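Hey, I was hoping to borrow your eyes for a little while. No rush at all, and the record is pasted right below.
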Amino acid sequence: MFQLPTYAPDLNPQEGIWSVLKRDIGNLAARRRPRPDHPGP
């Protein structure tokens, strides 16, 4: 069995990239979702 290191996002620059990417994807999805009170085209 292997002992994995503890989770340290401060030491892993990829974690920052993923958090920005997930935030941007969430914002894009929220902008593209139609509002329930808007009748649409």
